[in-house]
Design goal:
By secondary structure, the protein is of the alpha/beta class. The chain has 16 helices and 16 strands. Strands 3, 4, 5, 6, 7, 8 and 9 form a 7-stranded mixed beta sheet that branches. It holds the Pfam family ATP-sulfurylase.
């Protein structure tokens, strides 16, 4: 795997994208404009690493983290959740749940909390470990019992356990939350999460000077319509690079597991068609983030994270971070709620939302050099649109049936087929 700054573009996108911004990025508060990476959320990138490991010896309790919790710790330590300097205490938690803002007034999409089952941890220094690694020491300043019904309704828009994250909140997360200052013991992401995971500071250091940074996130393998959208985005946002930033932590049942997704991203870069059209204006990095499937609120959370990684623009697709009922398969959020939420807060965050109509395959005789065109243009011209649903795609993967090359890259398909049923969460 090449280092972050090397030319190994990676492109994928779930959803729709229509380009806004071809101008400079201007700070809403100061009026100053620039064309490079913007300031982190809150004005400064948080770094919670301690100078030495003596903090670990002072710990009076030890907690082995889940993968979801470990992702949160890694992002907190390295500034991904700036301006947070630890897990939220109750004042911040209550404010974010009720108003989507920290007690300081800073916008924040979702609570960042550490759930525990032991109320007696208050006042202790907690050593946080994950798979044998000492990640951090948490000063347990507060421990409280949250109102999870209120949290679910506010964060996810529902209290129904047909929403997978609401079901997890009620059934699996600890009864109490603990908040306080974190002291990092393991710098960077790669020691825990592997090669290709880069911190906000590492990403910012590798971004080319004077370029606008268009970030987007994905939790799925990359197919050709996704690639098409990013090729367009890079051309349409003037003087830009694309920061490809997939979340590779826990996600919802039915999704493809993180290691397999990473394999598909790696083999994608070997595809001749990919190399031909990708160009040199892409940067990529993996993100140790646990998806919440919280729709509009999670779109804000993603914007804030990517702002901390240096983004000036953020792609929000159709039903971003959405999910369906586990019983009826009905969507919990409207198709464009996440886009609307992102645009509502775009000026405050100083991150512009980028959106496009969907790109569809109509053949090279009707579309561009790769056979794609915007769906609105295809419909206006009465062109036949080639379609393959996600359900049909998975069916063909399992049965060995042909998957057309206009839909997916052959090497990506091979990785998924070789993985079999066990790759699905």
């Amino acid at each position: 795997m090449a280092p972050f700054g090397a030319f190994r573009p990676l492109v994928f996108l779930a959803g729709l994208v229509s380009c806004l911004a071809q101008d400079e990025t201007c700070d809403a508060a100061t009026g100053k404009c620039s064309s490079g990476p913007g300031e982190p959320h809150g004005g400064a990138l948080v770094d919670l690493m301690v100078a030495d490991a003596t903090s670990a010896s002072a710990a009076t309790a030890t907690l082995e983290l889940s993968q979801r919790q470990a992702c949160d710790v890694s992002l907190l330590i390295n500034g991904g959740f700036s301006p947070l300097k630890g897990f939220m205490k109750q004042a911040d938690y209550d404010s974010v749940v009720s108003n989507m803002r920290l007690a300081s007034g800073h916008l924040f999409g979702l609570p960042v909390v550490l759930d525990v089952s032991d109320e007696s941890l208050k006042g202790k220094k907690m050593l946080l470990t994950y798979k044998g690694s000492k990640l951090a020491v948490l000063e347990a300043e507060e421990v409280w019992k949250p109102d999870k019904v209120k949290e679910a309704k506010a964060s996810y828009g529902t209290t129904s356990t047909e929403h997978p994250s609401v079901a997890e909140l009620f059934a699996d997360l600890g009864k109490f939350y603990v908040g306080g200052q974190l002291h990092g013991l393991m710098k960077g992401f790669d020691v825990v999460w592997g090669k290709g995971f880069n911190t906000p500071a590492q990403v910012r250091a590798a971004l080319p000077a004077g370029k606008q940074v268009v970030a987007f996130q994905n939790r799925n393998p990359v197919h050709k319509a996704h690639f098409e959208l990013l090729v367009h985005a890079n051309k349409d946002v003037q003087n830009s690079i694309i920061l490809v930033h997939p979340t590779c932590g826990p996600t919802q049942p039915g999704d493809i597991d993180g290691p397999t997704r990473i394999k598909t991203y790696e083999v994608l870069q070997e595809e001749p068609e990919y190399k031909k059209w990708a160009g040199e204006n892409f940067r990529w990095s993996y993100l140790p983030y646990s998806m919440k499937m919280a729709g509009p609120r999670e779109a804000i959370q993603h914007m804030i994270i990517r702002k901390n990684f240096g983004a000036t623009h953020f792609i929000i697709g159709r039903d971003m971070a959405g999910t369906k009922s586990t019983l009826t398969s009905e969507d919990f959020y409207g198709a464009y709620e996440a886009q609307e939420m992102g645009k509502k807060h775009s000026q405050e965050l100083n991150v512009k939302v980028v959106d496009y109509p969907n790109m569809v395959y109509v053949g090279m005789e009707h579309g561009n050099e790769r056979g794609y065109i915007a769906d609105v243009d295809a419909k206006a011209k009465g062109l036949k649109i080639n379609k393959l649903s996600g359900t049909e795609f998975r069916k063909r993967l399992r049965s060995g049936e042909d998957i057309p090359e206009w839909f997916a890259f052959p090497k990506v398909v091979k990785v998924l087929r070789d993985g079999g049923d066990k790759i699905f969460l």
